[in-house]
Amino acid sequence: MTEHTPNKVIYKNWQEDLFKIKKTPLFAIKERLLKTIGYDENFGWIYFDCNLKFTDKNSTYKKCFLVLNYHPKSIFTSDGNPGVNLSIQINDETPRLFVHKFKPRDYNKHKNPLNINIQKHLTFWDEKRKAQIAIWNGKKVKLHLAYFPQMPGWKFAKNSDFSNFFGIGPEGNSHWRVLIPRAKVKGFVEIDGTKHMVEGEGYCDQNWGNMNFSKFASKWYWGRIFTDNVTAIFADIHPKDGKSKFTPLFLKNKNDLLITTSRAKISYDFPAKSKLLGKNFYKKILLNHKSLNASAEIILRTKEVVEERDLLKIFHSPVKFSMLKRFIRPAYLRLNDEFVMTLKTKYGTKKIEGETYHEIMLTT
């Protein structure tokens, strides 16, 4: 069984793995030739989300959920278009989507393709505050959030990156790093000119690689559960070849790391279809794993589809969208769930119930 290892140094030089990829001369020549005609298969993104409460006494807003996703490199297409998108849901209203496209001259892709420090929208590690900072400075919505890590980051053990699971060859590389499995989040959100102080909990991860993402993965389910003591992060990633499944599970009880695996058991029931995009998903997920220290069973039952997006439309013009949709139809779904977790340790059995969400990214 392939295990994960905690990454003790998670905030400095986290981009370096991308530049350690060894390439044969033939592969390097091919990559350079493709780039001369505007074809760039490298991808990368930096993902933040958080559940926040408004702390102003007189605020009419009570809560918000937001996803902030920096795309220094294109995920599904081969033009390398960078951008950043913000999805924010205030109270129980319909989520609002905002998109900003970067111009190529705004970033230096040769020196550091995953570093974002681009005018109004940026993320960086604040050494003084020991926090990852995420900023959005749009016309209707502005935010400045500090993510204070509550535990070390999480990466896959050596020789257990995506390429070993998906059969994409020794020169195909893709990496997933959970930089901040759980964070206390503090800062402000400004809506239509009014600033509101907020606080809550959040999560941050990064993905990058040297091939078109849609070539090796068809589905990616991921989610997390935060209770007072338990932190659980899970995913289910389906390769295009259909030969294997990649089902990582990370579970901590307070400071005790109980489960960390790439091979959790996961099954689905009650198929359904989203209304807007017509994408298939399941209303029930059963996840379980047994390790030396603990065993866990997690049942998720979907209450509603909160958000669904056609990812091609976010960053592309109508003309380009009409061309690309013939080959790929990437979609994003966010679903609100009720969960029941049964956790068995040497101290006994604990049953935990609550509400959370999970997300789905589809490339076909």
Entry summary:
This protein is mainly β. It is 9% helix and 55% strand.
Describe it for me?
By secondary structure, the chain is mostly beta strands. The protein folds into two domains: 1-211, Beta Barrel (AttH-like fold), CATH 2.40.370; 216-364, AttH-like fold (Beta Barrel). It has helices at 16-19, 25-36, 162-166, 311-315, 318-324, and strands spanning 4-7, 43-54, 63-73, 83-90, 96-101, 117-118, 121-126, 131-137, 141-149, 153-156, 174-191, 194-209, 217-226, 230-239, 249-253, 256-261, 265-273, 280-290, 295-310, 331-345, 348-362. Strands 1, 2, 3, 4, 5, 6, 7, 8, 9, 10, 11 and 12 form a twelve-stranded antiparallel sheet that branches. Strands 16-15-14-13-21-20-19-18-17 form a nine-stranded antiparallel sheet. Strand 8 (131-137) and strand 9 form a beta hairpin.
